[in-house]
Amino acid sequence: MNLFNKAFYTKTDIASMIEEGLVVDGSAGGLVLGRSHHEGGIRMLFLMEDYYTNDMEIEGYEYIMNSAVLSTYESYFDFINQPVEHFVDKNFEDYNPDEKIKKIDCRLLVGSKAIAIGPHKFGIVNRSSTKGFLKTLKDMDDSVHFNKEGYIQILHDNPIDINFYDQFCGSVQGKRPTKSHQ
């Protein structure tokens, strides 16, 4: 039975499904654990104004960049999410990520949980690029968050340098962020 066969869900529907363990809040971002597209994927439910829409599927081992990280490092997103360079891994194998990596676990014994996200923008890094840049994505996640006023706050006295630890291409030095965004 497919629990996520409706086009729209109310906030109450999603709150109930989160309480039942059928939906995970993915707003903070992280490494998604769950089924591949070939196995049926993972539904993403986006918060609009007062309802969630069900119009996208992602797969396990993709990475959701939350809005604070994406806003701070948006210029790096295309570099990290390299479809040509990183789709070479056609025989993708699951792996055990470092325990310090933030995870969004959508695995169930039967089927898959869905991810609720929004209303802020976010980025999705394909699973092969995620595997290559997982340490970089963790460093980005660890470096920023939203403060109480809704502004992005860089969590260090000085903005940090982000090193691109690409296991496919070697390490490439990145530039550091220079400003906060609203």
Describe this structure in words.
- This protein is of the alpha/beta class.
- The chain has one domain.
- It is built from four helices and 13 strands.
- The strands form four sheets. A five-stranded mixed sheet has the order 1-5-4-8-2, with helices on one face. A four-stranded mixed sheet has the order 7-3-6-9. Strands 10-11 form a two-stranded antiparallel sheet.
- β12 and β13 form a beta hairpin.
- The longest helix is centred in the last third of the chain and has 17 residues.
- It starts with 7 loop residues before the first strand and ends in a 9-residue tail after the last strand.
Question: What does the secondary structure layout of this molecule look like, with pairings?
Answer:
Elements: E1 8-10, H1 11-19, E2 23-25, E3 30-33, E4 42-47, E5 51-58, E6 63-65, H2 67-80, H3 83-86, E7 103-105, E8 114-117, E9 123-125, H4 127-143, E10 144-146, E11 152-154, E12 163-166, E13 170-173
Parallel strand pairs: 2-8, 3-7, 4-8
Antiparallel strand pairs: 1-5, 3-6, 4-5, 6-9, 10-11, 12-13
